[in-house]
Amino acid sequence: GNTMVVNGNTWPYLNVEPRKYRFRFLNGSDSRFLVLKFDVPGNNLPFTQIGSEGGFLPAPVVLDQLLLALAERADVIVDFSAFAPGSVITLLNVGPDSPFGGLPIPTKLKADPSTTGQVMQFRVVAPTAADTSAVPALPAIIPIGAATNTRMVSLNELESTQICVDKNWIYVPGVIPPACNAHSAPLGPLEAQVGT
């Protein structure tokens, strides 16, 4: 489609005080990559990314734009403290309306600035209290140790019984059960070892 939806609303706005805010972005599009940035002159409103769909990052990363693939998440902090009440800031999508082909995106392929190029607005209002927040130190990432337990997991699909595989689990084209020969077998439930 040609409309951007945030929390169930098309092109919404959010009143923000001149302080830091933590946002969790999720690209819920079924086929659109997003490249998010703010329409601030000089591009001086960065995203400080502290997490993703995999959890916290090892350290905060300051970005002038945020690339989000399908179903990708980003946990970010945005600092509006440099903006006076009455300021209006638009979150833009400068990603392509066509299939994503990598960065940089040619100007002619960028999202339509009157529709898919606009995500939402932030309207700066008077502060109600001083902002004493800071970008947090992120928790240390603890490496996963060796597996202490092994479980058998069965992967079942109805179609699994409709094909034949050879002794190396390679698909045998053109043969369906019960015609599997001596060198192949019907692909039934597979057991996979999963270490935990």
Number of helices: 0
What is the spatial order of strands in the main beta sheet?
3-11-10-5-8
- Helical proportion? under 10%
Q: Point out poorly predicted stretches.
A: 191-196
The largest β sheet comes out as:
5 strands, mixed
What best-fitting shape do the alpha-carbon axes yield? Answer: extended
Q: What is the mean predicted local confidence, pLDDT?
A: 83
Order of helices and strands: EEEEEEEEEEEEEEEE
Q: Pairing-aware structural class of the strands and helices?
A: mainly beta
Alpha carbon gap, first and last residue? 42 Å
Count the strands? 16
Rounded to the nearest angstrom, the radius of gyration is 24 Å
User: Which percent band covers the strand fraction?
Assistant: 35-45%
Secondary-structure blueprint:
Layout: E1 5-6, E2 9-10, E3 13-16, E4 20-26, E5 34-38, E6 47-52, E7 55-63, E8 66-68, E9 73-79, E10 88-93, E11 118-124, E12 150-155, E13 164-166, E14 171-172, E15 184-186, E16 190-195
Parallel strand pairs: 3-11
Antiparallel strand pairs: 1-2, 4-9, 5-8, 5-10, 6-7, 6-9, 10-11, 12-16, 13-14, 13-15
